[in-house]
Amino acid sequence: MIESPKIGIFEIFSKDELNRIHTATLDVLERTGVRVEEEKALELLNSIGANVDFSTKIVKIPKHIVEDAIKYSARTVQFAGRNNKFDLKLEGKRVNFGLGEGAINILDYKTGSIRPSTKNDIINSTKLADALSNIDFVMPLFTAQDVPKPVMPLHDLHASLKNTEKPIMVVDFGLDATLLINMAASVVGGRDKLKDRPILGMYSEPISPLTHGREHTRNLIEFAKAELPIVYIPSPASCSTAPATMAGAIVQSNAETLSGNVIAQFSKKGARFIYGADTSNMDQRTGVFSYGAPEWMIVNLAMAQLGRHYELPIWSTGGCSDSKILDSQATLEASLSLFAAASSGANLIHDVGSFLNFGLTGSLELITICDEIISMISYILKGVEVNDESLALDVIDEVGPGGQFITQEHTLKFFKKEHWMPKLLDRQTRSTWEKTGSKDLATRANERTKEILSKHQPTPLSKDIEKDLDNELRKAEEKILQK
What we know:
Layout: H1 15-32, E1 34-36, H2 39-47, E2 51-53, E3 58-60, H3 63-72, E4 77-79, E5 88-90, E6 96-97, E7 105-107, E8 114-116, H4 119-131, H5 152-163, E9 168-171, H6 177-188, H7 191-196, E10 200-204, E11 211-212, H8 214-225, E12 230-232, E13 237-238, H9 246-267, E14 273-274, E15 280-281, H10 294-310, E16 315-317, H11 328-343, E17 348-350, E18 355-356, E19 361-362, H12 364-381, H13 388-391, H14 393-399, H15 409-418, H16 430-435, H17 441-455, H18 463-481
């Protein structure tokens, strides 16, 4: 967590440009509109004065409704951990980091090969995130492909709840959200207590361009009414499902997330809505959605600036790569995207160390590397403390020209506080490095990952709570599989 970056937040728009983006967004929503495929949402939007065509399901939303929804939105969102020492307060410039979600493959840290992911991989990624000090929240990084597909999301959450005390964000795969809410409620003592201590949030997406799918809209409403954190952000690809110009892609992304906020706020005023976009580009040579593109990074900066303008909690992305293996490209793209996202002042930055190969493959070692990168970024963004003691005038005067500071009490007092020390990056002399095996970053990350997983034991649920959670999983499975 970066409590409040001291250095200036990176902003890319002038005030005039920001206003033009906002005005263009309102124009899209009022003139072009959005498609809403959930009947109850259509009825809701019609009741508040939107122009609803029930035959085409196109909804045109007047400016005042969009801006009223922004006014109704929660300015601060609590995102709780099972242990309150991990609670997050999403507001202002507080920056928090967490995993990504839903990889179908894993770069196996034991064999180095690619294979389909399992529930045990979710357990391991969650345990790793629970242990790493710079990871603030958890998402089920993998999909549990060793269980029946219709109930995968249940097992994703089940593995997460048992293996971390940190806040958990699950993915909306279209499953009835009440089943997931009931599982989380069983851990904290019921739905009312879950509202007070929201250990669960949901990440969901509209369908670009400008479409709110039936199941995702239904779950958006359910989480809004349950007063749980809801991330509802688009993920369009510029040149494919969004305009080729970055300004146009940002306008469309803004329209998609703000229209989702209208549905959330008019379902439950003060809904804990988290704003943002995962907008990147479609590579014109390969047709892939890039996870390491500078376009993605600049949209993160843009959406964070817009989010601050609206005074909404902000979601962002960083720490992933298009590379197929844990190589220089992976660390380059992960580092740049993490620094861009952190310097934007976004409140929740996800995908940290999670993805290789365009989001298809998860890597535990990349999470470990990104934990170190975040530590470096945190040091940079805290800036420099300037006071009488830190200016060190008396020490400089005492040492004088040609002296040394190594033996000064001032040095002993401040060197640990003032200087960043790596846990993973190498600073050995070459001769020492060679004597200790000439290990590169990927090798050291692999060894540290194995060490953490062999030693770290997450705080378990009590036997009674674990039994309640297992019962909720069983009931939810029966409900789904008997259909």
